[in-house]
Amino acid sequence: MRNRPTQVNQNQSSSNKATQPNSTSQHGLLLLHIPPESLTHITCNLDPKSLLALGTVNARLSNHIKDDHTWHRAFVYQLLGIGPETDLHDASRWDLLLRRSHLGSWKQEFICYYALRRRWEKSRNTTTAHIPLHSPVSSMHLMPAHGIISSSLHYGVVSRSLPLTGRILRGYLDAAGSGTGLGIGNPNVEFSPNVSACALGSDGGTAKIAWGFRSGGIVFTSAAKAMDAASRSAAKFSRCVVNDQHHGIVWDVVWDNANAVTAGSDGRVKIWNSKNAQCIWLSEGRADDCLKVASALSKGIVVAAMSNGEIVVWSGLAADGASEATSTSVLTIPPPQGDANHEAFSLFIDVCQSSPVLLVAYRDNPLFYRYDVDLPAGTFECFKYGDPALGAITSIAPFFTSQPNESSIVVTGTQLGCVGIYDWAARDTPHTLPTYKFEAYEDAASVTALARNAVTLVTGSAWGTTKVWDALTLEHLRTFPSPMPRKRVVVPEADDPAVRQILLGPEKEVLFVAVGDRVMAWRAGPVPKGGFRTRGAVAKTKERSGTSKYHQQLEMHQAIAESRHLIKEENAHVQKAYGRAREQRAQLETLGLDEVEAVDYILMLSRDEAMERQRNVIEEGVFEGDFDEDEARVHSTVRSTSSSPESSAPFSPPLRATRTAGVRIPGKARPNARTPSNSNVKVQVSPPLRAESREASFKSSPPPLQETSPPADQFPPMSSSVSSRGSNKSTRGSPPKFAWSTPLARSPAASPRTSVASDGRISRSISSSFDDDMRLAIELSLAEAESLKSAR
Fold first, then answer.
1. CA distances from 83 to 45, 91, 426, 574 (A)
2. Distance between CA atoms of 325 and 316, rounded to whole angstroms?
3. Residue ranges of region Disordered (predicted)?
4. Over the stretch 716-730, which tens digit does the pLDDT of each residue have?
């Protein structure tokens, strides 16, 4: 090749020293001979600033940068992820999220998008929050010059404010006619009760308000130059006549150019002329309430959602709404099958299609529905969209377009804090899944509000947090915390801290968010070319802050009051805790105990209570058959052993082992039949509860044993008044008397070496340790008997 370096000898190099500068200059221009496709692949990675700088190098690079195809490829590669080697016609739905600003060329489009995104991401402007109403904001509407009108259904008033400066204009616009904008904004005087619906609109600088009442009345308020604080003029007020109003509550009101459409609990839909508050068309009444209404009078269509889930479509209306009832046709769409809740909370009409297309979203439903309506044939076709894994849909925002090379999309927010973006043209079965989905809130807060333009996608959560995302790449740009303080003292707390509505300015750099009774505003300010200065640098010009001094002072006073209140509550809690601790120490000192001794004392009381409960259980009685047959055999062995003359050794250890063996083992089978025994090994107690005596006597005494009497100081005397007659009664099947009901007396035939008679009865001479073992055996037997009884 011509520009490839060749090897030359030393003589040729020395003789051609004069030509070396030309060769070196040629070696440095290798970039000029790269093919245009490869050069485009390189420039796709450059931002607009770098592309403009590259165009100033030489003529060839300048011509390459001037080509709009270079900017187009850089735009789609950096923002849509489409490589330069990919054919745009073969790329699947690459323009789904694209919304052009229609500036003429891709160069201007890329530069504008890059500058706006940089502002949204790196601007250091602060937010401004103000309180336009003394109740939660129901809806907002953007007026010229960044003005906002905010409505409140609680008081039935509309306020006017400038959110970027925090200024609130004096006077309310109400639905009663008393508040015409000339008042001072006193909610105790300027208010309208029983307001159920409100629709805000504007025509230039004129604010239009349509009110719906619980009594069925409709009122219109119009205020010219609503945001002009210098010259205040009274607003116009008009009310409908009694014969035209709804027979029940007005649930929904919407604006359609100069007309208004209302829906009421009487099942009727009415179209109104806002100038004279006259009803120009009404539908036939239905049994169910009409909850939502949407209109496209330019297409002659009005759609209503009923409380039973049906969707009713009226067609054939005139553009001004005036039409005869005979010229309109009605189509009723049944509710979707399998859904328990049929309450529709969103209803839209896609007027960009040749035939009307409806979008309906039901409450507590993870799916939303598309209805393609064929009005001449009177038929419809239903398509489902959604992903049940994302949760129920809580907010939905459609973005329909009729521009070429742009697609209509639907953005949804779910109950689990996720966002899904759907292709409105896709029609999959059984339902269309989202093309893009991501988790907007990691704390699973519901997405309650959505807004989108060509640059940003803004989401609002149920906790008042607002997040900004890139509209094309879906990257997170900025987060705005809730403007509502955690605990307010000066201003009463609003009912719901969720984001109610989000508005974006037409210049794509202004944001308005309604949270509770507050409206937060923010503007994406310019970013210096060299970045922000360090702390030590001195700025030449001081940019004016968007927050007013009065608002800053108000926030400062509220923060101080909140801090004092929190400190006061914390001190009260600490004093209360210390007071309880002091009382406990004082009680311990009166008892003469420390903390360790007090814990031991409490454990001792608990143990005594447990023993008392166990003693009460024992007092209920032990019945015959509560012990196993094995125990009877063991006791008979013990009886025979104790009655023999060879039992000269003390009997206490064998007796203790015998009693332990006679205890029922959990899970061991027991006989169902309970027959009276001919021996007195087992004790039977009568069902009535009797007071237990502290000493016990035995029912019968055994035959005399040929042994010497024990010393008087070793065994107490036992009574011999009980004869073997009781034993005969026991053999006949009669239940013996309560064994511990008589005092313990010594039997004359008692052996000095045996503490248990032949019938297995306990004498008073058993040691205290044996008494404890016996009591434990009886308690375990009773517990086992109760468990078996309850199991049966």
1. 10, 10, 25, 64
2. 9
3. 1-26, 628-770
4. 444 444 334 443 433
For the chain, the maximum distance between any two Cα atoms, rounded to a whole number of angstroms, is: 152
C-alpha span between 336 and 369 (Å, rounded): 9
What CA–CA distance (Å, rounded) separates 304 from 348?
Answer: 10
- Whole-angstrom distance between the N-terminal and C-terminal Cα of the chain? 104
For the chain, give percent helix, strand, coil, nearest 5.
Answer: 25, 25, 50
**Sign of the dihedral defined by the CA atoms of residues 115, 121, 122, 127, in that order:** positive
Nearest to 763 by CA among 727, 724, 715, 725: 715
Q: Are the C-beta atoms of residues 466 and 497 closer than 8 Å to each other?
A: no
In this structure, are residues 742 and 726 in contact, taking their beta carbons and an 8 Å threshold? no
* CA proximity to 424, closest of 406, 439, 450: 406
> How far is 603 from 587, CA to CA, in rounded Å?
17
DSSP letters for 669-718 = ---S-----SSSSS----SS--PPPSS---S--PPPPSSPPPPTTTS---
Residue at 654: amino acid letter: P
What tokens appear for 331 in the block? 């189509």
Residue type, 418: C
Residue type, 208: K
Residue 743 DSSP code = -
Task: Please report how the helices 768-791 and 652-661 are oriented relative to each other, as an axis angle in degrees rounded to 10.
Answer: 10
Residue spans of beta strands (DSSP E) within 93-188: 128-130, 139-143, 147-152, 157-162, 167-168, 173-174
CB 752 within 8 A of CB 714: yes
The residue behind tokens 């029922």 is 664
In the three-class reduction of DSSP (H, G, I as helix; E, B as strand; rest coil), residue 398 is classed as strand
Query: Hey, what are 479's tokens?
Result: 């987060």
Length reported for the chain = 792
H or E element, residue 71: helix 68-80
Contact 526, 504 (CB under 8 A): no
CB 446 within 8 A of CB 462: yes
Closest CA to 387 of 347, 339, 437: 437
Which residues partner with 150 through β-bridges?
A: 140, 159
**Rounded to an integer, what distance in angstroms lies between the CA atom of residue 691 and that of residue 615?**
12
Least confident of 233-237, 286-290, 307-311, 742-746: 742-746
Cβ atoms 440, 479 nearer than 8 A? no
What confidence tier does 638 reach under pLDDT thresholds 50, 70, 90?
very low
Beta strands 476-480; 259-264: pairing state = unpaired
Helix (H) or strand (E) run with residue 393 in it = strand 393-399
Encode pLDDT of 555-603 as tens digits: 888 888 888 888 988 888 888 888 888 887 787 777 777 777 778 878 8
347 and 356 in contact (C-beta within 8 Å)? Answer: no
Contact present, 431 and 440 (Cβ < 8 Å): no
Q: In terms of C-beta density within 10 A (0-12 exposed, 13-18 middle, 19 or more buried), how is residue 61 classed? A: middle
In angstroms, the Cα distances linking 756 to 288, 544, 659, 683, 685 are 89, 105, 12, 14, 20
Q: Smallest Cα–Cα separation from 198: which of 208, 210, 214?
A: 210
Identify which of 551, 667, 493 has the alpha carbon closest to the alpha carbon of residue 128.
551
- Cα 596 from Cα 592, distance rounded (Å): 12
Give the C-alpha separation, 191 to 172, whole Å: 8
Asked if 562 and 489 touch (Cβ cutoff 8 Å), the reply is yes
Find out whether 756 and 785 touch, Cβ atoms under 8 Å. no
Q: Which of 448, 454, 457 is nearest to 506 (CA)?
A: 454
What six digits make up the tokens of 219? 């009122």
> CA–CA separation, 636 vs 641, rounded Å?
9
> Which residues is 347 bridged to in the sheet?
360
